[in-house]
Specification:
Blueprint (H helix, E strand, L loop, with lengths): L18 H22 L5 H4 L1 E8 L5 H8 L7 E5 L5 E6 L7 H22 L5 E9 L1 H29 L5 H21 L6 H31 L5 H11 L1 H21 L2 H23 L1 H16 L1
Length: 311
């Protein structure tokens, strides 16, 4: 699709010239993420599905297969053992058996934790075991946390959408809303595709990313409105290109430093910190991209539809 940009006095880069095919790719990625989340499902952590997580460290070498084999005979249901941090540190996860009542379920859970402790302290006594953390969430509590988290996300997005509606007029608001949806869905889809667990800290990270993306979008939109007042006769393609080029340095510095810091944490950190850093790195990348290639085509499309309606 041709644009009305004839000269390069808008800046160095013609972002609008590539907007349509790049935004089409964004639609495909977003749809693919939604389909994957619906079909593949989300791997919830114990925060949402309930269960027990035990972090144990050994002074001497213990293999993950040896530890997993020792726990297999305890009849704990599905047990997951994952290396964590150092070579001799592990995370043990199990959901446990459900009883007929909440009281019976809690008793079974406490008994299961005691069995795991006994196996670790007796069978691996020569390896110097140290149980560093035990986290337990009951099934009912997990269900309540999941429901409350969904409500928290819904109310947060509702407040953000109200703010966008008051902050911008009809030309800008739809693009900002689509940016938020695109960033949240794609980030969550890539996060789940990487095999990581979704828990409360990850949910908080995604909400933080929504705010980060919205901030970048608002900055670009503000410059578009300023540019529109001066270059209205040159058309929206010119306005978008000039505003985006004007804010490019600010965007690179802000998003770039955040992205680099997050990547370093994702590589060198462990556990929840690494997962949060991974989510932030992915979200910053797509949030910066969407401010240009999701918001801009939306503005151009609405402008085209408005002209067609008037005609």
């Amino acid at each position: 699709m041709k644009t009305d940009v004839k000269t390069n006095d808008y800046g160095r880069f013609n972002f609008v010239g590539h907007a349509w095919w790049v935004s089409s790719l964004s639609v495909l990625v977003t749809v693919a993420s939604i389909i994957y989340l619906m079909i593949g499902g989300i791997n919830y952590g114990i925060d949402f599905r309930g269960g027990t997580e035990i972090q144990v460290r050994f002074a001497q070498g213990v293999t993950i297969d040896h530890l997993r084999g020792s726990l297999a005979s305890l009849d704990l249901g599905e047990v997951g053992v994952q290396s964590f941090g150092d070579q001799d540190e592990f995370i043990i996860r199990f959901q446990g058996r459900a009883g007929k009542t909440d009281k019976e379920t809690n008793e079974i859970l406490n008994d299961s934790i005691a069995k795991v402790r006994e196996v670790i302290e007796k069978q691996f006594a020569s390896s110097g075991p140290e149980i560093r953390r035990v986290d337990t969430v009951g099934p009912q509590v997990g269900a309540d946390l999941k429901r409350n988290s969904v409500l928290a996300v819904f109310y947060s997005l509702l407040v953000i959408l109200i703010y966008i509606g008051l902050r911008f007029d009809y030309k800008y608001s739809p693009g900002a809303v689509l940016c938020l949806f695109h960033d949240a869905v794609v980030t969550l889809g890539i996060f789940v595709l990487s095999g990581r667990e979704v828990n409360i800290p990850i949910l908080a990270a995604i909400l933080t990313l929504i705010g980060f993306s919205l901030n970048d979008t608002i900055v670009v939109f503000d410059r578009m409105r300023e540019t529109e007042d001066i270059y209205r006769e040159k058309g929206w393609a010119f306005i978008i290109n000039k505003a985006t080029n004007d804010m490019l340095g600010r965007t690179i510095i802000t998003s770039g430093t955040t992205f680099i810091s997050s990547v370093c944490l994702a590589i060198f950190a462990d556990g929840t910190v690494a997962d949060i850093a991974f989510a932030i790195a992915v979200g910053v990348l797509f949030g910066t991209y969407s401010s240009i290639y999701v918001a801009a085509p939306t503005i151009l499309l609405l402008n085209k539809l408005q002209k067609g309606a008037k005609a």
